[in-house]
């Protein structure tokens, strides 16, 4: 049996139990400290690292009675992120004992402020538990380094899942419908035949029918992606919009002879980020724009029969200046983006002639046509 000292996110019991795959007996947990060390946030990350600091102490938990299977799962969870185990002496109320401790590989992460578990639980706890659920499904099937490479998208999918659950059911009395909720679905199994930047999930489930009976168990395949912020930049003074152009694999795979569609600014809502914050960030990254005001157009599923993707669509008021054909994009994401500034009259002509092929752009364009006079009258 192994003794392990944890000082960071694994002190959150739901996460620990998700990783080891079973409930943890309270008798296996004891408050402990590691002298002359301090847990600090890893710069720009949602987890801590342990750094030597004379006179400080890192608060944590001593986990005892861990079997080989537990340690295999824990090592899988931590292993791809550049952590290694080292034996250290930790202090508990009952004395001093030796335990394994995870340390980050030298130079991998830069330390920031002191780590606070309560802050982490409030912002990241539910998201990281959801991410761990997907990660641990790959235990025994994928290498930890591969999971670490995939983790940004696993984390983003988890954040979208948590956001959907926090939003609650649509209960406005103006909505027609049966009133059925997620509680009327009985899950029977989940498989992921493909997972990388995106994922494909096969859900085996039954659901309540409108006549009150339960359906047979059915299989439904879903393309799983993170929430996205979508933005149509509009300059109400010059009465013009900005569209972007870039190569898109979807039209290419369909056989489209012009796989460089005109589209709005768009990007993933990163974990810990609001859709509004994502819209502002993407405006800067893809088009070099600073927005002064956002108008929400729609929060909607583009194709609920086949994908979990959820769009937060905005019109953003800004100053487009006299630019044209600017280049943008994030080089590390292999983005090659060209922007185009169009008068609203030309943009509406393209809409009316059905020459714009990206659905969220069409939706935002028609919304803008309806609200354009109001936006132009704003101070």
TrEMBL record:
Keywords (A to Z) from UniProt? Hydrolase
Cofactors:
Mg(2+)
Give every Nudix hydrolase domain span: 224-364
Q: What is this protein called?
A: NUDIX domain-containing protein
Q: What is the lineage of its organism?
A: Bacteria, Pseudomonadati, Pseudomonadota, Alphaproteobacteria, Rhodobacterales
